[in-house]
Amino acid sequence: MSDSDEEKTSPYVTLISNDGYSFQITREAAMISGTLRGMLNTSFQESSTNTIKMHELDSQLLEKVVEYLYYNLKYNELVDVPEFDIPTEMALELLVAADFLDV
Amino acid sequence: MLPNSTRGRTKIRPPRKILSSEVDVEKSWAVLQKAIEEIQHKNASKLSFEELYRNAYNLVLRKHGKLLYDRVEGQIRKCLSEQVRLGLLNKLASSGIDDRQFLQALNKEWEDHLLSMRMISDVLMYLDRVYAKESHLPLIYDVGLNAFRDSVIKYNNNEIGDKIITIIIDYLNRSRLGEIVDKFIIKAVIYMFESLTEVVNIDISSVSGSANYGENYYLHYFEPRLMLSSHEYFEDKSIELLDQRSGVIYIEKVTQLIQDEESRIQMYLPDVSAPKMLELMDNDLISRNLESIMMFETDGLKLWINDDNYTLLQLLFKLITRVDSEHEMLKRRLRSIILENGEEINQLSNEQLEQEVTQKKQEEEKKRIIAEAHGKKLVVRHRSSKEQATRYAIRWIHNFLSLKRKYDLVAEKSFDNNIGILEEIDAAFSTFFNSNNKSAEYLSLFIDDCIRRSLKDKSSDEVEQTLNNCIVVFRFIKDKDVFEKYYKNHLAKRLLQQKSLSSEIEMNMITKLKQEIGSSFTARLEGMFRDIKLSQELSSDFNNRFARQDVGETDAGAEIRQKNHGRKLELDSSILTTSFWPMPINKSMHSIQYPDELQVLKDQYEVFYDIKHRGRNLTWAPNFGTVDIRIHYPKKTYEVNMATLAAVVILKCFNDSEDLRNKHTFEEIQGITQIPVPELKRHLQSISVASRSRLLKKTPMSRDICAGDLFEINEHFKSPQTRIKVLTVASGSKVEDDLQRSETMEIINKSRIMETEAAVVRIMKARRELKHQELINEVIKQLLNRFKPQPSFIKQRIEDLIEKEYLKRDEKDRSIYQYLA
Question: What Pfam families does UniProt report for this protein, alphabetically (chain A) (predicted)?
Answer without folding.
Answer: Skp1_POZ
